[in-house]
Structures are given as C-alpha cells and as structure tokens.
Amino acid sequence: MGEVVGPRLYSCCNCRNHVALHDDIISKAFQGRNGRAFLFSHAMNVSMGPKEDRNLMTGLHTVADVYCLDCREVLGWKYERAYEESQKYKEGKFILEKSKIDKENW
C-alpha cells in the first residue's frame, strides 16, 4: 500500500474544495447549527457573509457565515467578536460543521 503524500485536509462535502488543514484544529468539542463542529485557527478557499450579532450557547458573539468559495455551501461561521471575556480566544477563529466537511488524505 502506498504512503499518503501531503497534509491531512478537510474538504467541502458538496464539491470537495479544500477548506481546512487537520493541523489547524483547536477543538473538536463545539456545537454547530446541525450537530458537532470543529474550531479551526484558519480556513482556506472560503468566503464570508455579512457580520451579525448572534446569541450562541456561550453568549453574544459577532459572527460571519463561512461559505465554500467554489459552490457557496454554508460550512459554518467565523467568530469576529466575543463580548464575554472568557470567550475572547474564539475571535478570528472558524467553526466548520462536521456534517459539512469530509476528510482527505487520511
């Protein structure tokens, strides 16, 4: 069996566009709109929707929906601002929903 070459990636479940690196996962213990979600330090090949305030499980945050750059599938959101001091670590980070991404090069 051949060895896998290249980094372990996550891709859009709809079009297979690469959207995140496994090494950029901060936590797998997050909740998205449709179940489990991962917190990433970075995302790639995505675009952002308009910023809006949302009341999430951990309080009020300013977030922007994250879309696949190729097919426009909503993959999750980006934390733009956290109003609670204990949640500030999320600012600038990305939530990608497990149901919206697939593993590649595993």
Automatic annotation (TrEMBL):
The keyword Metal-binding applies. Residues 8-105 form the Yippee domain. It comes from the Eukaryota. The lineage of its organism: Eukaryota, Viridiplantae, Streptophyta, Embryophyta, Tracheophyta. PANTHER family: PROTEIN YIPPEE-LIKE CG15309-RELATED. Pfam families: Yippee-Mis18. GO terms for molecular function: metal ion binding. Belongs to the yippee family. The keyword Manganese does not apply. This is Protein yippee-like. It comes from Helianthus annuus. Keywords: Metal-binding, Zinc.
